[in-house]
Amino acid sequence: MDLKEEEFIYPGTRACAGCGMALIYRIALKALGPKTILTVPASCLTVLHGMQGFCSTKLSVLHTPFATTGASASGIVASLDDKGLSDEICVVAFAGDGGTTDIGIQSLSGAAERGTNFIYACYDNEAYMNTGVQRSGSTPLGAFSTTTPMGKDGHKKNMPKILEAHGIPYVATACASYPLDLYEKFQKAREIKGPKYIHILAPCPPGWGYEPKDTIKIGRLAVETGFWPLYEIENGRMTLSRPSKKYSDEQKRKPIKEYLETQKRFKSLDNNTVQNYEQYINDLWSEVNQRLEREQE
Amino acid sequence: MKEITVDELIQPKVQFVTGNDAIVYGALLANCRFFAGYPITPATEILESMTQYLPLLKEGYCIQMEDEIGSIGAIIGASWNNVRTMTATSGPGFSLMQENLGYACMTETPCVIVDVQRTGPSTGQPTKPAQGDVMESRWGTHGDHNIIVLYPNSVQEALWTTIRAFNLADKYRTPVVLLSDAAIAHTRERLEIPLEKEVEIIKRIPVTIDKSKYHPFRTGYSVPSKVPEMDRFGNKYHTYLTGLTHDWKAYPETNSAEVHEKLVRRLYEKIDDNRHDIIKYEEKYLEDADIVIVCYGIASRTVYSAVETAREKGFKVGLFRPITLWPFPEDKIYDISLDIDKFLVIEMNLGQIYHSVLEYSKGNCQVESLFTLGGQLPREKEILKKIRKR
Q: How far apart are CA B188 and CA B156, in angstroms?
């Protein structure tokens, strides 16, 4: 598959070196094309967009208050509907994990329930990175943040599952390390009518504590260890995405330790927590495998 | 984890720290043991420090909430377990809190809300100081209500003002807004930290009445005050709280004008009657002044030197700095206005306290203004220019 050559962000953004979100954003916009309106709450993405004179995005963007991403998308879509433009112009909400799993969940849920014709993309760097690494509902078990100095209790919130429970036509997970998979998912979502939700893991060098050059490697490890399965749920039917297919088989998954060890935020993990992770991944996959079997019948 | 005391926790006793640190220390010394917050620049460090310190203290608890509505909701709930509670935020978060701020006024729930101001409206400039929330802190929540708002101007004063905020909240059973700004929040200054025993704690009025006679909003039965006594949830009395208009028995009453008026007037008066206790200010060179500069918070820091320079040049300039912004020191403004030619109101907004000064000086003197925006502190040169202009 060929990616489009046209770019919708200019080179030289204000994102950190090795930013997973910047990669995701660039690829997603390529898939979405020029007829796209974005609504973005406070997040690292608003930092990427840059300052006066250096705005890095070529599309129309509504930088919306934190709690109302879904609502602002609803408004834009409704006004496009009025003019008969909502099939032609794609409205995309692009929010971080804090803006999605915590403060924004109410307005996202409302928009999903109303059947708003839009794509909601959550780039998940697993904490409030823009304000300097505070935990979010999406921070994984045991991870250090400035507000979980002893490591976070409990696993991350399963947002795709919550969105799926809204009965929306398209839910997908993706990862910055698999740009073609990501590209396809955005392209597909653009063609589907109704609410679409794409949750993308976005490795973050300063927040997770690793070298910027390792972003792709770390994102891959998240998939290869089975921690972050890539899948699509179309009208209630789940399919595993290509990069994740073989990890249905427990034997093929890399040990989770390999993923955790690469990041400073997991430095103080004890064996119990690692075992907890192993159990978590097993449970996650047995649920996925059972479902796939059931749906094949 | 081993529990330690506040005195052990805050070491050494003289530190070179930020305003946010001072607010945290003040809160801990004031026996605040519950904090709920949400990250927002420039207030995030308060949440970060609280998550580190509170779990070390006896009965200390800190939660990072899902948003600012959650933060203030949690501190109102926790306050009803006889715990001193606090949250900290900045403009956008403070706006989200407004409904619950009114709820805290209506249910007379003591709590402290720190608003570290940044420029606005909306997202504004997150790292720049501003004073644009002065009116919002007074009138942000809907309906007639009264509220206490304090605003220190230095790291040291931030510590003592925080302690005072908790005392006023408990004494008058009201939310207290503690204003700060991005400059005070992030400026490092010398801070002298008192011992716990050197800090006066004014407790809530406990319920002493027989259970059969207890009503949550009955006032004046053990102390002559318009402030009701306060029980804690789970204790021997039952307390029903509602944001609906309620009578002294806490029963909702949505038809009677009389009940509503009685309630709202009492909520007003319990604070207004005690203005002398609540209002605090700094004054300098008022005795012989022709011109008095009114300023507060971070904007006052450059005014000090401007006043000295003006005095050296022979201008009779005085300074009046309210530390309690609301209730507004209106009597003092009136008294000063009788003896001077001109007030010069200096604030980092487009005129918020200015209008109160204009109102309460009642035409006795001129009222001029110097407003700065975009995080810019008032410059001495501009202040002197205003002073020279007769």
A: 10
